[in-house]
Amino acid sequence: MLRSTAMLALVCPALISFAAQASDAVTRIEADAPVRVTGTAAPADSYVEARFRPLAPGRDGKLYVVGRYQDEKNWYGAGVAFQGTTGRVQVEVVRMQDGQLTRLKQFGRAGASDGRFNTVRLEMAGANLAAYLNGERVTIAVDGALPLPGRYGVFAQGAAFEVGTPVAGDAADKPARLALARAPQRVQLSVGDAAVSLPVSALGSYRLPDAAAAPVRLATRSFITQGAIQDAAAAATGAQPFRFTAVAADPALLRVQVADGAVSLAPVAAGTTTVMLTSVDDPNVLSVIDVQVAAASAPAPASYKLAGAVTPAIGERDVPADTPLRLHFDAAPTLGMSGGAIRVYRKRDGALVDTVRAGGESDQLGYEGQPFRRALRLQPIAIEAREAIVHLHSAKLRPGEEYIVTVDDGVFSGTLGGQPFAGIAKGQGWAFRTKATLPRGARFVVDDDGKADFRTVQGALNHVMQHTARTAPVTVEIRNGRYQEQLYLRGKDNVTLRGQSRDGVVIDAQNGDGLNPGSGTAQEARSPGITGGRALFLIEDADLVTLDTLTIRNSVLRSAPNGGQAETVFFNSEGRLVAKNASFFSEQDTIQVRGYAWFYRTLVAGNVDFIWGNNHAALFEESEIRTVGDSANSQGGGYVLQARTVGANDRGFLFLNSRLTHGPGPTGNDVPAGATWLARSAGYATAWDHIAFIDCRMGPHIAPGGWAGNGVAKQPAPNPLAASATAGWREAGSMDLDGRPLDLSRRANGRVLTPDEAKAAYTTRAAFFAGFPGGWNPRP
């Protein structure tokens, strides 16, 4: 806990309705000169928001909006802590109680510390507290210590800020959001490019439907981000798009226009600038787009031959439309960051179809026209041995079309045919034609280089989502190869991904919380920003999905800037997931599941909370649960689980006849003896810590105390605090890896079950999964 000596500014006019507009006026608040203005109190369930910016960019500082203010020593706050040396911000929910400031929740964010305006909101609904930044819900906390109504205002520490007049309103009224739709607030262009028109999400405030009314099915089937709920609720309540303006900070670099709900950006000269989007009616509703305009870097004249050096081959026919582009260099090339691009044109009319830039991209996974797609940041260009592999944006190419590829000078450094690579011009003839017909049936083949229906797993998933009936069984057979891609499946049941061999089929990509924050969800077309999340494979609103005989690896390091939490699979559905004879590798949060899941003879590897989720029932049977060395902490052993089971009567997580092993992590270090805990709790009264190990073998890396909680290892108490035969932290028949019974006398918090209690905890698969509507009895 932190004791604060910072200034406090309270501005407390009467409660303002959701339709009220913020004042355009701003006030300078000095760090050492507290200012207070008293006023009437707001209800306990309300929001408070204010627009602000730091007046000393690059300096550490904090700004919170404050609610339920009783006195200087008791209030809630939500806001940001600026880290001047790193340029990052931390979005926080805090509680000041009896003069002690406690961070209830915090969430890292990149950028936004350069002196631009931001809007922060604290939403208080009962014990639920949410922090919003520029209309986006960033993090939530649960705390009931201060339930009373109170005044509201702002709180600052460490630096001077410019702050608009705080406004408050009903907690049920959600904030307006202004941002590029399904895209990051960062745009890359090149001098000579035509103007690009980017759709903008600009929907006004709205109220969520009454809980007693007909539920929004979208919200009940999967976790939907604020943007997606916003559009669903807006459709139900009649909220309308609002007017906004767009202004370039440096018009000498960029021409900007607004028309038909989109912003048009035309590059003029090389350089870096920003574009400010602002609501015409409410200055609290704003966002900033970072724009980088690169100098023109057209291909230079070159005499090297492309025959045999590119895939698809020059003039190749019947090319699967999801085929990545490959360039075969003499030796391993390097990827330039000059701002250059790979471009694909439609031959019949010269239309630009896709642009991929060396500095990174965003994509919308899914098929064109899909109501909800997964938007995320990624690096679409990979270097593998002497090949450069370029993944085009999802679903850009069409059947039966001929395309021409160009590559700017500077995108790659290397030699081709003994000559320095200087790009590929249209005249060099890298052209190919896609297959004219789509595959049919219930079985599809993916192969990265052999005869197949698709070249990528996502290409096959796009097809089955678009062209097969929801309930029709479909099998995607994946031939041996390394598939460097992120994946997304939504709205399709009975899908099986079956690999040719467990170690031969490797789906491998880098994604993490620093790159795509949050667990992730799909977005409607007008949803703002990017919320695709940190998982490699996001599955939503789907039932009976099977992952069989393959490996999925999220290869981002926990120690990397874009690392941290990084799922291989996030099963974000109330349906059923099966994983058998499969392997899943990451470091933190490897597997996140909702609904019902069965893992059979499967390996799950990680080191921090690497199995978790808001689930009903997950059974890990005859599987290996491997704790690996932590790239961020060489002496760390982490936690195997963090259960957040949603119901007191749900089964939670059960491990049966499985092995808890350890091994080297991605940076080579192993796990120290006794350093790994079986589980820790999230500490939520609304989530249940239902975990059981029955007849499992455990390596020496497992801590003798077993369970971290109720003060052990400085972790919160589990829910329930005292385990029973069917609830809480439990184990029975635990052995070492050689099959000798373990001494469990030093176990803390958990319950050691008797043989009869162990039988009550598990009898059959059908009994374990009886909570699924209609029952479920999965079989190998």
Automatic annotation (TrEMBL):
GO CC terms in record: cell outer membrane
Annotated ranges, domain Pectinesterase catalytic: 445-708
A molecular-function term among this protein's GO annotations: pectinesterase activity
Keyword Hydrolase: yes
Key words, A-Z: Aspartyl esterase, Hydrolase, Signal
Assigned protein family: Belongs to the pectinesterase family.
Protein name: Pectin methylesterase-like acyl-CoA thioesterase
Organism name: Pseudoduganella lurida
